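User: I'm putting together a teaching handout on how multi-component assemblies are represented. Below are the sequence lines for each component of a complex, exactly as they appear in our records. Could you produce the 3D structure of the whole assembly as structure tokens, so the students can see both representations side by side? Please keep the chain order the same as the input.
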Amino acid sequence: MTTKPHLQSLIFEVTQRCTHACLHCYNVWQGEPPGERYPRGELDTAGTLRLLAKALDESDCHHVTLTGGEPLLRADLPLLLDFLRERRVRVTIISNGRLLEEDRAVSLIEAGVGLFELPLLSHRREMHDRLSAAPGAWDAVLAAMANVRLHHGQVVAAFVATRLNIADLYETIRLAYAFGARAVMFNRFNPGGRGRLHLAELLPSVEQVREALTVAERASVEFGLPISCSIPIQPCLIDTKQFPHLGFGYCAAGTERAYYTLDPLGNVRPCNHSTTILGNLFEGPFGDLVSTERMDDFVRAYPEVCRTCEVGATCQGGCKAAAQVCHGSLEEMEPFLREGRGR
Amino acid sequence: MPIHRRNFMKLLGVSVASLYLARCRSPFVTTSCYLVVLSPTPGPPLTNSPAHQRLRLYWLRFDELAQKSRTDAETSFREELVSGHRLALDELVASLEVAAPVADLVQEAYEAAVFHVWRSNIPATCYDMSFNYSFSSADVLVKQTTVLNQIAETGTVDPATLEKAQAALEHDMAFYALTDEELQVLYDKLGEQGRYPSFEDVSLELTPEAQAATQFIVDLLTAK
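Assistant: Of course. Below is the structure of the complete assembly, with chains in the same order as your input.
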């Protein structure tokens, strides 16, 4: 008998459609190399509800993150939320904020969305809009934050640190604080999807990230804001102990902290950055798809150069999904590690 | 949707852990400028078996687990607690102090509590940002207002958006201006709207074993 995997959270990409075309977008169906094409499409409402029911029946999971693409483009989103509420599942929505008008914010909060994760890429309109490749994106996301706050919802602001906007970090955190963000995610740019095509333009240097962490540490104290570095930062490049007020994490693939990702067609992946499809949920039990045997290659892989490092098994060289997408192998050094090691 | 027996045991375990970490515990009471803790009513002395006392100590180690989880997400301490708790329970089953099905449910509640504490304290990763959901303090609201006003002066943000952000702050600050009587009226109104169902209204699928397990945990923690 297959046991139910105990999941901290399940990521569900409800649609591949989006209103923005962010330069740093990591969606696996964007910017694929020639000859590779990730499956496209999405299930209808009935199929999607069947998929969600199967995922929840076959796992011990009480938190689902709805993402995309832009999840608010799904016309049946209220039905999906009703279903998740009925199943007593906590829900987070990752959105670009473009469609989060006041009425929509109210209905989503009332439908049980506990947390909105919204991007705030700069305190400057032109920079946020440029990175989002969408004029009006900055105004829309600030309005979205105000709408959620006004109706007592919770917002976390996500700052994607690229070479272009990393110097804006302090003022951006300040803006997020003023608009009621309960926390800030400092995500160093992690190439994948369309972001892979903009690697040289966007990848920050190690020194830039180190300086930004100093700024984030100071801002976390000044504003009393939790700031989390969601993309792994390798301790061989930056001594993370120097930033006691910031949260750091490493790749959790294969553990209970893993963020297994379900795409709109039911394909299961180890995480949302990875292009590896473990299988389709309609073809087998969730437990089988994420079994040790299937996950083994992903979990065990990390760069040869990290094998002799005392924290190598924990750090795993950073994000191996980025290594896979950008350099074709889970065992390659991912771009930020390469940058730091002068490769 | 009724609360199933197994979910009930997990929720009970998580609630106990949360109460414990929120300092609703005895007898190790500490106070600080920012935390007012009511002195507990002394419980009866511990007269139970060593296994019973050992079991109780496992329920009092959530602080330690939280601390270890913050620095080591893969800490083996979690497994140590779960297996130690199971061993102590097995001794109680062997000595007929607790029935095996009840012990299984107590273990289930404990494992859920351990998982909750671990998960709430491990270094944050991509999609589960941890922060304090409690209402922002008056100090924070004042500081947010100051910063928002400074941003408003730059003229960069759309006035309609600023207006909403300011309205949200004013709304939150108004909460602090309420008198105790006004607050009570607010809570009564929420109660009338059925936001807080009475215990009788909650549909629970509780077996006699689940009730016995719940009573066992309550007695254990109150040192009965």
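A couple of points students might notice: Chain A touches chain B through 54 residues (CB under 8 Å). Chain A is about 35% helix and 15% strand.
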